[in-house]
C-alpha cells in the first residue's frame, strides 16, 4: 500500500487524480469511505477524474459512460467494459492505495 494523500484533502464526491507508482488513479471520497478506480474510461481512454460523481457512480465527461464506484462496472453506455478498482485503506487520517490488488 502506498500513501496517496490525507483524507482531509479529499472533498466529498469530487474526483481526485493521483499517480500511484506510475498508475493513474481517481479517488472519490464518500463520507468516511474512499474509492480508487483506474483513471481511464474503458470506452474512450480519457481521464475519469475530469468527470463528475453522481448517484450512479463516476461519469466520463466525454460520452457520459458511468462507472460504479464499488465494482468499476459500467452502468450506462457507450462503455461496456469495467475499469479496475483498487484496494484502499485509511490509516491515521491518510489514504493508502494498492494498485497491485484489484477488487473487481
Write the layout of secondary structure elements.
Layout: E1 2-6, E2 16-20, E3 23-30, E4 33-38, E5 52-54, E6 57-59, E7 66-67, E8 74-76, E9 85-91, E10 94-102
Antiparallel strand pairs: 1-10, 2-3, 3-4, 4-9, 5-6, 6-7, 7-8, 9-10
Domain Rieske: 2-97
Pfam family, one: Rieske
Organism: Lentzea cavernae
**Mean pLDDT, all residues:** 95
Oligomer: single chain
Structural classification: mainly beta
- Low-pLDDT ranges: none
Order of helices and strands: EEEEEEEEEE
Kindly report the spatial arrangement of strands forming the biggest sheet. 1-10-9-4-3-2
Report the count of strand segments. Answer: 10
Radius of gyration: 12 Å
> What count of helical segments does DSSP give?
0
Helix content: under 10%
Cα-to-Cα separation, first versus last residue: 18 Å
The best one-word shape is globular
Q: Strand content of the residues, in percent? A: over 45%
The major beta sheet can be summarized as: 6 strands, antiparallel
InterPro entries: Rieske_2Fe-2S, Rieske_2Fe-2S_sf
Pfam families: Rieske (PF00355)
Organism: Lentzea cavernae
Protein name: (2Fe-2S)-binding protein
